[in-house]
Amino acid sequence: MLRAATRHSGHRCVVLCLASTAATAANLFLPFALGRALDLVLADPEGARATRWVLYCSALVLLLAVLDAGETVLGATTTARVTAWLRLRLVGHVLSAGPRAVGRFGPGDLVARLVGNAAQAGTAPATAAALLAALAAPAGAIVALWLVDPRLAAVFLCGAPVLMLLLRALTRDSSRCAARYQEAQSLIADGLAEAIGGFRTIAAGGTAGRETARILRPLSDLSREGHLMWRVQGRAAARAVTVAPLLQIGVLAVAGVLLVHHRLSVGDLLAASRYTVLATGVGVLVGQLSALVRARTAARRLAEVLAVPPMSYGTLPLSWGQGELELRGVTVRRGGRPVLDGIDLTVPGGGTLAVVGRSGSGKSVLAAVAGRLADPDDGEVRLDGAPLNALSRDALREAVGHAFERPALLGETIADTIALGVRAASVGRVRNAARTARADSFVRRLPRGYATRCTDAPLSGGEVQRLGLARAFAHGGRLLILDDALSSLDTVTEHHIAEALFRPSPGSTRLVIAHRASTAARADRVAWLDGGRVRALGPHTELWRVPEYRALFGAGETVRGASGTPGAAGPEEAEGDDPGATGPGRKGGPS
Predict the structure, then answer these.
(1) Which residues on adjacent β-strands are paired with residue 466?
(2) How far apart are CA 158 and CA 46, in angstroms?
(3) DSSP assignment letter at 309
(4) What are phi and psi of 356, to 5 degrees?
(5) pLDDT tens digits, 466-521
C-alpha cells in the first residue's frame, strides 16, 4: 500500500528527495568551506581568497534556509495528497464491500482507520524521502572524515555499530507500541459510534455516566502504550546521547593530537568537529524512524480493510423480462450459523410477495440477498433468468430499487435525496414519486420545499420513511424491495401507499418485508419464514387460519379491515406518523 501511495505522488517524492539530498550535500560541504575560510583568514586576514570563501559560506547558509523552507512546504503538500488518496481509495473499497466491512470492523473502528490511520500512513512517502537524505548525512560525514584524515574515520567507526543497534531496537519496540496504541484508539472510536447511535436509549435509561466509562475504558491502555512509546524513544535518545559525545570526544582528541603534530590545520579541526556532529546525528534519525514505524503500522491496519473482498459484478446486460425473481437453494451464514437455510422461492413477474416472520428469522437478510446487497454463501438468485452476480453493476442497480426501514437522507436537498441513484431524474418524476409516497404535502410545507437542505428539515421518522419510499418509487425498475419500509407510517398513510404499491403493474415485481397483517393481506402470496426456512407459502387468507401465523402480528391486527379480509386492518380516522419514530434530517439511519 505504501509503495502504491508513493507511486501516486512519485514526482513530488522525487523532488522532495532531491531537495533533501541537496540540503544534505550543502550541509556536508559547509564544514569544509568553513574550515578553508578559517585557514585563509588566519593566514591572510585581508586576502581576496579568504573573502571569497567567506562569501561561499554565506551562500551555503542561505541555500540551506531556502531548501529547508522548500522541504517543509513540499513535505506537507505531499502528505496531504497521499492522505487524501488513501482515504478516497479506502472509502470506495468500504462502500464496495458493503456490510462485509462494517461487520468485520464496526463503524467506529472503520472511521478511526479512515481518519486517523490514513493520516499517519500518509506521512510515509514524505518521511521515507527525507529519511534517505538523513541516512546520507552520517555516511557522507564519515567519508568526509576519512578525507580529512583516515584515522579520524577509524576512531568514529569503532563506535558506529552501537548506534546501529540502538536504531534497530528502536524500530522493533516502536512498532509493537504503535500497533497497540492504534488498536486502543479504534476501540474508543467504536464505542463512541455505538453510543451516538443509541443516544436516545442512553438518555431514557439515565446511563450516560456508565456509557462514558464503558467508552473510555480502553483509555488506560491508550495512555500506557503512549507513555511506552515515549519511553522507547526516550531510551533510544538517551543511549544515543551517551554514545555520541564519547565518539565526538574521541575524534576531537585524535584531531587535537594531529593538530599539535602539524598533521592537521585549525580549519581541518573545525571541519572534523562539524563532521563528527553530522555523523552522530542520531536524534534526527530517531524521530524520522519513529514516524516511519507509526506510518507502516497504520498502513497495515488500512491493508486489513482492503483485504475485505469487495462485491464483484459481471458484464452481462439484463435481457427483456417482466421481473421474475428466483431464489434457488439460497443459504446465508453469519458467524457459522445459517441465517437462511436452503431457501427456494419464485416471485412471478409483476407479482407481489410479502415476507413475514419473527425477529431473527432472516427476513432482512433475504431482502438483501434478493437485491444483491449481499451474496449468499450457497445457492443462486436470478432475475428474469439471469444470475444477479453475472449482471453488470449498471444493469443490476437500474433494475432493482430498495426502500428501507431507516433510510439515510443522502444528498444536499430533499429533491436530491429522492432522486438519488435515478438517471436523469426530472422535477416531474421526483414530485410524482413524492406524491405516490404521500410525501409531497409535508415537503411543500418545508421552508424551501424540495430545495430545503436535508440537514435543515425537521422530519419525523415516518416522514423520513416516506422520503425513502419516494426514492424507491422514483427509481422504478423491474424489482422493488421494501425492507420493512412501512413500519413507521400511520395506518391511513400506509393504506394509501399500499394501494399504489400493490396495484397490479406488469413488469414490476415487489418483494415486501412485512410486520403488519394489513400489508401481508394485500400481497399475492406470503412467505412465512421460521428459523431461516420457509415454513409456509401461500395467500394471506389461507395462512391466517393457522394460530401461530396470526400470533406473528399480535392481537391488535386480528380485526377485519374495510375490505373484509381477515387480518387486514383498515384506515384509521386520525392521520399521523408513528409517535415512537422521529429523527431530524439526515439522522434517519444507516440504510
Answers:
(1) none
(2) 42
(3) P
(4) -125, 165
(5) 898 999 888 888 899 998 888 778 888 888 888 888 877 777 899 999 888 888 88
